[in-house]
Amino acid sequence: MSFVRCLECPKCHSTYTAIEIHNLCQCGSPLLVRYDLERLGKEVKKEDLKGRRADLWRYWEFLPLEKEENIVSLGEGFTPIFTANNLGRELGFKHLYIKDEGLNPTGTFKARGAAVGVSRAKELGIKTIAMPTAGNAGGAWSSYGARAGMEMIIAMPVDAPELAKKECVVSGARTYLVKGLISDAGKIIAQGVKKYGWFDASTLKEPYRIEGKKTMGLEIAEQFNWELPDAVLYPTGGGVGIIGIWKALQELQAIGWIKGPLPKMISVQAEGCSPIVKAFQEGKKESEFYHGAQTIAGGIRVPKALGDFLVLEAVYESGGTAVSVSDDEILVAVKLVARTEGMFICPEGAAAVAGAQKLLASGFLKPDEKVVVLNTGSGLKYPELVELDLPVLEKEAEI
Amino acid sequence: MSFVRCLECPKCHSTYTAIEIHNLCQCGSPLLVRYDLERLGKEVKKEDLKGRRADLWRYWEFLPLEKEENIVSLGEGFTPIFTANNLGRELGFKHLYIKDEGLNPTGTFKARGAAVGVSRAKELGIKTIAMPTAGNAGGAWSSYGARAGMEMIIAMPVDAPELAKKECVVSGARTYLVKGLISDAGKIIAQGVKKYGWFDASTLKEPYRIEGKKTMGLEIAEQFNWELPDAVLYPTGGGVGIIGIWKALQELQAIGWIKGPLPKMISVQAEGCSPIVKAFQEGKKESEFYHGAQTIAGGIRVPKALGDFLVLEAVYESGGTAVSVSDDEILVAVKLVARTEGMFICPEGAAAVAGAQKLLASGFLKPDEKVVVLNTGSGLKYPELVELDLPVLEKEAEI
């Protein structure tokens, strides 16, 4: 059932066959899946989507799986996009939307990459997967790995969110904590990969995770009835989300399902870890390792992303921008969104909200533009964001 | 857009107009929404559902809202039903399914009742809603209330799950903790309702929450392509879920969308709080207040449900049964489901899994029957279920 043509290196343009297991290109770059878009465009029509399953597999022609029986699913994707009119009114936007990735299995957008990554790994006969994680990707991959009957090895910073650790443990993953950042956990995994032959599913070190994330872009297009919004704000850590959305929009443009200008892609980072913002401000094509990275939004605490050049490409090509926000602004945004829209969002999603507010103030975004903010996960995974100080009543008390 | 005929008392059969605000019947019983099913059956076809929005509002003809603009939605419902083959193999079922309500906003099935309850309250002009809760309903109603711009007053046991408390707080609800059970919280709310004129949204004290829960039954029917499974297991606290599913199936039968025998409705409770099981074993139509209620599954720690007679009616009429499981069995089931299927389920859902296992052993369920277990929420809301004892590595360590 696959329309995959090959794997291609976006840097040196080497190609590889997709029926073999690959990680990085020989030049060290991530590999991207390329499809026979001409055939896809001829054989598939937008209207075919109507009535299909309400998860990301509704876009199977844009995904790398050969056989339906290899799908490992927990109900990922096809998350709703809400009009956030109450929040928009507070911030000064007339057409503000939130896409809520918190409704994914395991509570974050990481489920998309894990679903497609694990499914394809199963199809390729892989039995053991290893990866470093800031937390949520580990929880997601452990869950899908368990459902696929695979062995999972996970390493994450010792200060990763407790709930992500518990997701790994409860689903039976071999889980290690590391006194350091995700980059340190990555080194330990890389060593194990070499020693034991595990499959390395680090961010962008395998080509299929991004295909899962790409479906966010397909969904935005379909949910806006193929008339795209003006801007998409994405909190950027490893960057696979923004790279994936951009890839999706380009594929849709290539087959003619969408026309006209694409949305401005906006990368939002935390002030305490903003390598992409720095590179963008300096007009560079790649970022530098960000020393002393620190932010409450652990998912975007990535000092140097392997796909930084792809993130920056999406930002430059789309006429977007990159902006950073403080931890205080993140906390304010979490509370503001909950009070106005009833959505308990994660700090990374709150960073994107705060970024939108900043770019409206700076004039980069206009009040009447259609602006989509990606909330990448549920606030339920970050209980430490909310303090409790509640009145305690006796049984016979009165209010 | 409404097919609502009236509100009807299932006990004394008094009827009330639905365009006014009502709580209980004058006889003290909950009220049920009745529809003009004849007209509905004529005007709506199963095929009309294809391609509709992927949430519970796809069934709007079966719901009590008059105007679409009053919908308060966060993406609730149309949750997936999975084949749980790995788990089935462990337990001895050939056709085991889990419907995962953890993918709802706020992480539990309570979002369904809150979405429909708050939407209808908004439509009726209600500004302030008060309710007691075991925790999760409070989180859900607070979230939907915030999105609707309503004032919410919530009272819950002091030992309710921390995350549910935080959901209430972050979305701006006035939240009180009570040294007692949900029934004690209920007394305090009832007093406030009398004193301040708040709208009382206690379980089954308003007629619309059940309509939201009903959509689980509509979904089971649609997702099984209108060929129903043999049994549905539901963890039972207040009982609105099982009552709602049963109501849905009867409505679908009345309009001819489903035929043949309906599934056996099975109520699962905790050994430490099993009033329905006791009543069923004694062949009674109502339950007695269960003294000393205690279980780790807080959502089913309800000593006496207002709708107990409706739960028992569903169980008796469907040829179902009621069964209780221990807290140890619940904990084992949480881990088993996570390891085999990658789903981190809540203790109430785990109780239903353990109940299925017990009824297979007793011979009530057969290995080749199609059995659906409702997982009513995400395990992410119960972090205390998983203990962490993980190896901590230095940065330069090797695995």
Describe the overall structure.
- 2 copies of one chain form a homodimer.
- Chain A is an alpha/beta fold.
- Chain A has a domain at 81-108 and 208-383: Rossmann fold (3-Layer(aba) Sandwich).
- Helix content of chain A is 36%, strand content 16%.
- Chain A contains 12 helices and 14 strands.
- In chain A, strands 4-5-13-10-11-12 form a 6-stranded mixed sheet, with helices on both faces.
- At the A-B interface, helix 4, helix 5, strand 8, helix 6 and helix 11 of A face helix 4, helix 5, strand 8, helix 6 and helix 11 of B.
- Strand 14 (392-393) of chain A pairs parallel with strand 8 (174-178) of chain B, so a sheet runs across the interface.
- Chains A, B: InterPro entries: Ser/Thr_Dehydratase, Thr_synthase-like, TrpB-like_PALP, TrpB-like_PALP_sf.
- Chains A, B: Its EC number is 4.2.3.1.
